[in-house]
Amino acid sequence: MKPGISKIHALLLLLIDNLTRLTSLSQTVCKTTFSRLTRSWSIDNNSLKSPLVGIFIFIDFQQKMATLLTRPIDREWINQAHRNRCAIKVYEFNKMSNATAVRALKGASNLEAIDHRFDHGDKAKSAVLRASRHLGTEFPGAEGKLKRDYLMLKDAKSMYLVGNFTTSGRLQVAGNEAWMVEMFYDILEARYEKLPNRFPIYMYNLYFKCWCQLTMGESKKDHRVKEPRWLKISRPPRPIEEFVGIGIGSGDRNTSAIVSSEIGMLF
After folding, report:
1. pTM for the structure as a whole
2. Mean pLDDT of 107-128
3. DSSP 56-110
4. Residues in Cβ contact with 157 at an 8 Å cutoff, skipping those fewer than 6 apart
5. Domains of the chain: which residue ranges?
6. What is the spatial distance between Cα 128 and Cα 146, in angstroms, rounded to a whole number?
């Protein structure tokens, strides 16, 4: 290999890495770009075979990593995901058919329709009832929307929401989003063999204008016991794989602009 080629090789790999991160270029485009650059510098492609395998696996992972799971009302999440070339699945509950339709905004309009009746003791009903106990409120009776929310959450890897805190409930999340946060927390608890110190649940707090992450901290009543608590962070990690994005903020124009900016900087 010619002198300095190894440095050029490393720079090219870094360039392609950044291209996939910043522009979501396809794997084919990146392969073509790399091939042209290596030919222009007369680099021996056989010597690059092993690194190429690694970088293309990484590029392929990047292409599959971001799929937004959301509801029709969460328009800002949908808009930002569109702008950043994420796949989008919208979960809609239809009262007439008592079922959820899952729509892919970049593909077929109806991926699947899922029955919503709580008549067979399914996992969704159990999740809603657990959330009801943790929230200290009675089951609201909105079976369709709550089961839709569970179906959206059950396979997600992380959750991002816009909202506020309250003094009630185990996780102290205000509004209807509290049901979803409680259910997702329970799903994660069942998924982990050992509870992590930090959960992949992130909230942009409208009142404090900052990001927070759900963590496990010492109980105020008994320091020997750990309980879920919110911790202020600078910014959440970039969403990967299937992630939930919910919460639309207030109708105030300035607040909406802030929320739009904060959501956009995640991608």
Report:
1. 0.72
2. 63
3. HHHHHHHHHS-EEEE-TT-HHHHHHHHHTT-EEEEEEEETTTTEEEEEETTS-S-
4. 200, 240, 241, 242, 243
5. 5-64, 67-264
6. 7
